[in-house]
Amino acid sequence: MARVVVDVMLKPEILDPQGQAVQRALPRLGFKGIADVRQGKRFELEVEGPVDEAALARIHEMAETFLANTVIEDFTVRVENGTGTEAGTETGAGS
User: Fold this and answer.
1) How are strands ordered across the β-sheet holding 40-47?
2) Does the N-terminal or the C-terminal CB of the chain have fewer CB atoms within 10 Å?
3) Which of the two residues, 1 and 29, has the higher pLDDT score?
4) CB–CB of 37/19 below 8 Å?
5) Are 23 and 36 in contact (CB under 8 A)?
6) From the CB of residue 23, how many other CB atoms can be counted at a distance below 10 Å?
7) CA distance 29 to 84
8) Rounded distance, CA 58 to CA 48, Å?
9) Under 8 Å CB-to-CB from 20, ≥6 apart: which residues?
10) Contact status, residue 2 vs residue 47, Cβ threshold 8 Å
11) What does the pLDDT look like over 51-71, one tens digit per residue?
């Protein structure tokens, strides 16, 4: 089985109130020097069989239609190998 990770983030021009709340709290907690925080979502998918171009196309479609709101969010799809390192990345922009 292979693992495919889909990371979903708000587009840069979209206000991120949760990220701003975290950013404001960090100095009070002793964490200095953080200029900005953006919060996102991470989906880890265990895929049966090989992760070929057809499987990646299905996952990209899933991310575009179900996992991300492409009006306000961008996403990336990447395959991780057994050690958790990245084997390939595909970006999906909801423009």
Assistant:
1) 40-47, 2-10, 73-80, 86-92
2) C
3) 29
4) yes
5) yes
6) 17
7) 31
8) 13
9) 37
10) yes
11) 999 999 999 999 999 999 999
Give, in degrees to the nearest 5, the angle at Cα 64 between 90 and 17: 95
Q: Please count the other Cβ atoms lying within 10 Å of the Cβ belonging to residue 37.
A: 15
Q: How far apart are CA 37 and CA 3, in angstroms?
A: 27
**Predicted TM-score (pTM) of this structure:** 0.82
Q: Residue 17 — φ and ψ, nearest 5°?
A: -65, -35
**Cβ(2)–Cβ(50) below 8 Å:** yes
pLDDT of residue 78 exceeding 50, the answer is: yes
DSSP annotation of 93: -
Rounded CA gap, 62 and 18, in Å? 25
Residue 59: φ, ψ to 5°: -70, -40
Question: Tell me, what amino acid is at 28?
Answer: R
